[in-house]
Amino acid sequence: MFLMQRALLVCFVFLSGFLQVQAQEIVQMADSSALPPLEQQPDSLLRTAPDTLAADTTKKKQGLDAPVSYQSTDSIVWSVGNKAYIYGEGDVKYQQIQLQSENIEISMDSSIVYAYAGIDSVGSEFGYPLFMEGDQQMESRTMRYNFKTKKGYITDAISQQGEGYVTAGQTKKTADNVLNMLHGKYTTCDHYDHPHFYIQMSKAKIRPKKDIVAGPAYLVIEDVPLPLWVPFAFFPFTDTYSSGIIMPTFGDENTRGFFLRDGGYYFALSDYVDLAVTGEIYTKGSWGLSAKSSYRKRYKYSGGFNASYQVTKLGDKEAPDYSVQKDFRINWTHSQDAKANPYRTFSASVNFSTSGYDKNNLASMYPTASSTQASATNNIKSSSISLSQRFPNNPLNLSATMSVNQRSQDSAIAITLPDLTATVSRIYPFKRKNVIGSERWYEKVSMSYTGYLKNSIDTKENLVMKSSLIKDWKNAMQHTIPISATFSLFDYINISPTFNYVERWYSSKIDKSYDLEQQSVVEKDTTYGFYRVFNYNASISASTTLYGFFQPLGFLGNKIKMIRHRFEPSISFSIAPDFGAPKYGYYKELQYRDQYGQTVTENYSPFGEGLFGVPGRGKQGSVSFSFNNNIEAKIRSDKDSTGERKISIIDQLGLGISYNMAADSFKWSDLSAQLRLKLPMNYTINLNMVFDTYTYEYDEVRKTGRRVDVPRWQAGKGFGRLRSTGTSFSYTLNNETFKKLFGGGESDSKNKETPKPGEENEMENPDDPNALPTEEGATGKRLRGAKTETEGDMDADGYLKTTIPWSLSFNYSLNLGYNTAKFNPKTNEYPYRWVHALSFNGSIQPTKGWRLNFNATYDVEAKKISYLTCNITRDLHCFQMSASFIPVGPYKSYTFTISVSSSLLKDLKYNQSSSQLDNKLMNWY
Questions:
Q1: Rg from Cα positions in the chain
Q2: Cβ-contact 845, 877 below 8 angstroms
Q3: Minimal CA–CA distance to 856: which of 516, 377, 412, 380?
Q4: Are 491 and 543 in contact (CB under 8 A)?
Q5: What is the largest CA-CA distance in the chain?
Q6: Which H or E element spans position 685?
Q7: Averaged pLDDT of the chain
Q8: Residues near 296 by Cβ (< 8 Å), separated by ≥ 6?
């Protein structure tokens, strides 16, 4: 009896060893877990004797095309029925298919695998099934998949498609990798299980990396279904550059009615250039078209082109205030890569528009990402296109330019086309090719040449195309040839003689006469022909540099080691004949009796309206003096490795004046002065001043001041009176400003904490709980349970840092000068006039999601803000809200937009705006 019990115990233990593999970690070796095809796996426990019947002639099932490998961190259990159970981060691979899950069941006979999540001790799910095929992946709660047919059934699936995420309660996967979903959701919000918004789809078909086609769908925001229903929906996905439709925005204005704006088509023409054609239309008749293109070729050139045309209709046709205005705009930028051509350069910067375009375009009222100032506030616009050519081993340079300057205030326009320049750089014509001995004096003589050819017109916008090329356009040519040399006298004084020759070629001259009706001198007749106007002068200058050193006395301390003064005096003498003499023919004398009955003799030049002017009248025998000063100090400093550093006390102090010995009156020129100071914090003050050296008297007839030939020092009024001066400065205040000024702040590098072990980049952390290792060491990124973005940075104690980024910038300019519109007869002086200009802008980010900024201009004379734009933006996670408004001035308007942040659904938005044409802010809710 004992022997029988012992035999039964041995058999039980033997069979248990085959039926169960106890908990152990499977360490996979090379192909150690490779299995033969699932339905061909033998069962050693169910072996039977060979069948003595006739051989089975039925066709056997085809096996799998590759082995299936698997692994886990817990255990693998084989059971009766040819099934395997994988527990603990299971990982199954077959060809390009990979399945990761906490629990996996494999049926060897049917090639079906079933995966589901695990449940921890507190009842929470973890280790959701993650299915990967190629670069596509899908996560779910349960998944049943057939390796042979490549079909599957998934519940509560999550899949990322393009920029969005698709979730569905039930999903069927077909053999051609198509997903058929029931009760699906599409969203770009990364809160997958409970998104802030989604498009509810009753049925959907997904072709990964291609598109989503859905049946009836509607929009849901914060779990509230909206009455925005569509019979079907189509979401295309593409990683390639392709063409497509640009959806318009809709809204309404009081003056132009309801509108559809910025809708059109995008053309992907090639890898180097694209084109977007958009339009706008209003119910009251206004409309517009625009075309925008950008191009780029690496190492060659890049640029962009934008052209717009708009027709603005205001009022009713039968009303007297009805108006139709046609405007257009052209913007073009082109830049050439420096590597494209070392000798030829082409560039363009075109910003041309009619004066009414910005006034009728709402987008022109607000600043853009590239400019802090709205284009509608720019009274002056400039455009230019230039081409330059250099020649190797040749001093000749050629350049051509076309320029257009506009003034929107009165629609004035100035066009120069062409503007050609030919330049010969400095050459030494007498220098020997083979130098033997020391350099001779005449070898220091150098010369250069500059030639200009211009054709320009100043007119109004509506008269440009009606102007005559001969009568209305001005054209001229100028040649300039300077000859100079530099010699050293006593090794300390530099002597520089110079001779300049300038010649102008004009095609017309204008004679003038006095008009009694207009009571002014007007143009009488224009004569066309070829006219030479030349002048020349000669000068010689002497300059040197002197240094003075001063060491402070001991009782002043030892902080300052030495003070250095650099003094640069210069004196020059220049001569020129009187080109106002009758023999040159550059000036004419006109006598007339004015409205006061006085006989007036006036000299004018028939070439005074020429592009390059006319030579001055009177002989020149001028002596000019100039003095430049620089004062620096060397102080002891512990911050410098040398133990000392230099500081600037006066960076520049310059004075200049001249005396014309050949003039019959007003021989002294104005005294000019320049001051430049370098202050701490890398701030520099530049101040230019002009001092008047002559006195004035009151003209009883013209009721204004008249300059008289009496120097101020002879009249006992000092050496000179300030005529004009001005300066400007700008500064930016931000979070770091007061830290730099008063200390107490640490650099960003000091504030950054060293990452703790295990806090490195998630992609580099092998212990990431949201990633499971594959056989090759790669990981699949899970969506459920992934780390969410924090609301901000935390300090060492785990508290949220409350840093509020802010900045405030201002630009202030100040000019002081004579108010020539007024004259004080008591003091015989012009009063001063101050001209101020102040603009400022700022931004503040009180929280991570909120951001406010503004841009303003202050009119000092009117004592009010002349222009102000305010912008408020709010990051709503997957939505973006922005509001911009102009509360003051003639351009009062606002715009409010809330839209999806993702570019894929950028047309899913709400927009409300008013136009500056309404001239008031509308009430809206």
A1: 43
A2: no
A3: 377
A4: no
A5: 158
A6: strand 683-692
A7: 80
A8: 272, 302, 303
The number of beta carbons lying within 10 Å of the beta carbon of residue 122 is: 5
CB 611, CB 556: distance < 8 Å: no
List, in order, residues 6 or more apart from 59 with CB less than 8 Å away: none
- Structure confidence by residue, pLDDT tens digits, 813-857: 889 999 888 888 888 899 998 888 888 889 999 888 899 998 888
Residue 81, C-beta contacts closer than 8 angstroms, at least 6 positions apart? 107, 109
Q: Do 50 and 56 contact (CB within 8 A), yes or no? A: no
DSSP E strands in 57-176: the ranges are 68-71, 75-79, 83-94, 97-107, 112-116, 118-119, 125-126, 130-133, 136-139, 142-146, 151-161, 164-173
Cβ–Cβ contacts within 10 Å for residue 535, how many?
17
CA–CA dist 731, 854 (Å, integer): 16
The one-letter code for the residue type at 429 is: P
Q: What secondary structure does DSSP assign to 700-758, as a single string?
A: TTTTEEEEEEEETTTTTS-S-EEEEEEEEEEEEEETTHHHHHH-----HHHHSPPPPTT
Is 281 in contact with 310 (CB distance < 8 Å)? Answer: no
Residue 332 in this model has a pLDDT that exceeds 60:
yes
Burial environment of residue 440 by CB neighbours within 10 A (0 to 12, 13 to 18, 19 or more): exposed
In angstroms, the CA 330 to CA 309 distance is: 9
Residues 311 and 305: their CA atoms lie apart, in Å, by 21
Instruction: Please tell me the distance from the alpha carbon of residue 872 to that of residue 878, in angstroms, as a whole number.
Output: 17
H or E stretch covering 460: strand 446-460
Cα–Cα dist 603/918, whole Å: 54
Q: What is the DSSP string of 229-243?
A: EES-EEEE--SS---
Tokens standing for residue 510: 């204008």
For 862, half-sphere exposure in the C-beta direction (CA atoms, 13 angstrom radius) is: 9
Cβ–Cβ < 8 Å for 172, 145:
no
Residue 103 scores a pLDDT above 70: yes
Q: What is the pLDDT of residue 78?
A: 84
With cut-offs at 50, 70 and 90, classify the pLDDT of residue 362.
low
Lookup result for tokens 């250039």: 273
Q: Are 198 and 190 in contact (CB under 8 A)?
A: no
| Residue pair 38/107 in contact by the 8 Å Cβ criterion | yes
> 619 and 663 in contact (C-beta within 8 Å)?
yes
Single-letter residue type at 820: T
Q: Which residues pair with 233 in a beta bridge?
A: 214
Cβ–Cβ under 8 Å, residues 511 and 498: no
Distance CA 667, CA 712 (A): 13
- Tokens 């044409």, residue located: 917
Q: Give the Cβ contact number of residue 611 at 10 Å.
A: 19
Task: Evaluate if pTM is beyond 0.85.
Answer: no
Amino acid identity at 201? M
| pLDDT for 753 | 47
Note whether 489 and 495 are within 8 A (CB): yes
Token output for 542: 């002497």
Among 296-300, 323-327, 380-384, the range of highest mean pLDDT = 296-300
Three-state helix/strand/coil letters over 298-360: CCCEEEEEEEEEEEEEECCCCCCCCEEEEEEEEEEEEEECCCCCCCEEEEEEEEEECCCCHHH
Q: Under a CB-based contact definition with an 8 Å cutoff, are residues 405 and 379 in contact?
A: no
Give the list of residues 6+ apart from residue 243 with CB closer than 8 angstroms, or none. 265, 266, 267, 268
Query: Which structure tokens are listed for 574?
Result: 């220049």
Place of tokens 């291609």: 210
Distances (CA, A) of 546 to 285, 353, 492: 76, 55, 9
Euclidean distance between CA atoms 394 and 18, whole angstroms: 95
Angle among Cα 567, 568, 573 to the nearest 5 degrees reads 145
